[in-house]
Specification:
Layout lengths: L3 H28 L4 H34 L2 H53 L15
Length: about 140
């Protein structure tokens, strides 16, 4: 069964994949000029496709976690990170250029990853009064 902890770990993994993509793409564009024209299109598609996975994963994980630990600031941090990622995915190249887009995407991904880490930790530190609680806690 998927729970907040599993989804938080998956979302952190996705943020890492996005960060690696953002760091490697400029190297590939510089090293392989033949790829550079198609790389910009692929980069835009990569960010938009990642959102189809990141948005529902993050919303569910943060919702489940905040329902449990009641720390709404964690959800707020996640919403800020997601908002940055969505805005950059659709408008980043026009607003910031290639380099600025990478920086803004990295910032959004790090903010989102931080929110999932905080969510994960808060869930681990919350005791569950319900005997049917499916999550495991560190007491």
């Amino acid at each position: 069964m998927l729970n907040s902890n599993t989804l938080d770990k998956f979302a952190i993994l996705l943020s890492g994949a996005c960060l690696i993509h953002c760091l490697i793409t400029p190297v590939l564009v510089t090293a392989l000029p033949i790829v550079s024209s198609s790389t910009l299109v692929e980069d835009l598609l990569f960010h938009q496709l990642m959102l189809w996975v990141v948005l529902p994963t993050s919303f569910v994980a943060l919702f489940l976690g905040c329902r449990k630990h009641k720390q709404l600031a964690i959800a707020g941090t996640g919403i800020v990170g997601l908002s940055i990622l969505v805005a950059v995915a659709f408008f980043g190249h026009d607003w910031f250029g290639i380099t600025g887009e990478k920086i803004a995407t990295t910032i959004g991904g790090l903010v989102l990853a931080l929110s999932h880490y905080l969510n994960y930790r808060a869930c681990q530190n919350t005791t569950c009064e319900d005997r049917n609680c499916s999550t495991q806690h560190h007491h």
